[in-house]
């Protein structure tokens, strides 16, 4: 979770794992078994298996790295992936290295604001995951200008045929509209018993039935599918 402004960051041991909470929101979760994390993080990582074979190894950009839960899931799904993670909060990165093993994930970590990073970056990516929120638990939201300013910049950093993923809670319709710039097809992974809707878009994104079939072929994702409804937007 990338962030702006003052915030409260704590480590909590609960439910057999380690949680990173930022302003009350659950930003990262890790158990001793690296394949066991929450369905939201698996859903954010899942589109890496939808990239065509010619994209191997893929180059992935994570906007809102947090403590690395999505990066860890991606490492399991595609060990060869080149992953760049952007996180503004240096306190979160310090906790991620100390408690969540971020240094072992082979992620190129960038400590910066996502707007500033996107303006200066010149590389292009096969998969871009936007997981950026600000604010406390009950009113958590996208930073001002993210959809209007950052999404066009994301489009410039996307390789032809690449996929964009966005984690949304209270702003689903607005995010879906903004995602249409990346491809005619927009699919959501709605996580049951969570507020999160994971929105995926791209020129070559398959329809929901095919998405489910391809995810079902991956062990950790197959277990996640019982908690996710996949539909076209």
Written description of the protein model:
This protein has 233 residues and is of the alpha/beta class. The chain has a single domain, classed as 3-Layer(aba) Sandwich (Rossmann fold), CATH 3.40.50. 29% of the residues lie in helices and 29% in strands. It contains 8 helices and 11 strands. The protein has helices at residues 39-45, 69-77, 90-99, 114-120, 146-157, 172-179, 208-216, 219-224; strands spanning 9-14, 17-22, 25-31, 59-63, 82-86, 107-110, 125-130, 158-168, 185-191, 197-202, 228-232. It has an 8-stranded mixed beta sheet, with helices on both faces. Strands 1-2-3 form a 3-stranded antiparallel beta sheet, with helices on one face. Helix 1 (39-45) packs across helix 2 (69-77) and helix 4 (114-120) runs parallel beside helix 5. The radius of gyration is 16 Å and the shape is globular. It starts with 8 loop residues before the first strand and ends with a strand. Mean pLDDT is 89; it is low at 1-6.
Short description:
The chain is of the alpha/beta class and 233 residues long. The protein has one domain: Vaccinia Virus protein VP39 (Rossmann fold, 3-Layer(aba) Sandwich), CATH 3.40.50.150. The protein contains 8 helices and 11 strands.
């Amino acid at each position: 979770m990338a962030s702006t402004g003052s915030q409260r960051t704590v480590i909590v041991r609960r439910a057999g794992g380690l949680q990173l909470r930022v302003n009350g929101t659950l930003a990262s979760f890790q158990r001793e078994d690296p394949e066991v994390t929450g369905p939201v993080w698996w859903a954010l990582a899942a589109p890496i298996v939808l990239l065509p074979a010619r994209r191997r190894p893929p180059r992935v950009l994570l906007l809102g790295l947090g403590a690395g839960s999505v990066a860890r899931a991606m490492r399991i799904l595609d060990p060869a992936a080149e992953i760049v993670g952007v996180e503004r909060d240096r306190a979160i990165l310090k906790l991620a290295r100390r408690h969540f093993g971020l240094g072992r994930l082979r992620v190129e970590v960038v400590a910066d604001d996502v707007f500033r990073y996107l303006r200066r970056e010149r590389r292009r990516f096969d998969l871009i995951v936007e997981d950026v929120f600000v604010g406390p638990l009950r009113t958590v939201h996208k930073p001002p200008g993210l959809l209007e300013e950052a999404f066009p910049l994301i489009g410039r950093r996307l390789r032809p045929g690449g996929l964009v993923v966005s984690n949304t809670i209270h702003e689903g319709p607005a995010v879906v509209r903004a995602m249409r710039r990346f491809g005619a097809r927009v699919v959501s992974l709605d996580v049951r018993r969570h507020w999160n809707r994971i929105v995926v878009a791209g020129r070559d994104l398959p329809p929901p039935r095919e998405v489910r079939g391809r995810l079902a072929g991956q062990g950790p994702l197959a277990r996640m599918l019982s908690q996710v409804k996949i539909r076209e937007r």
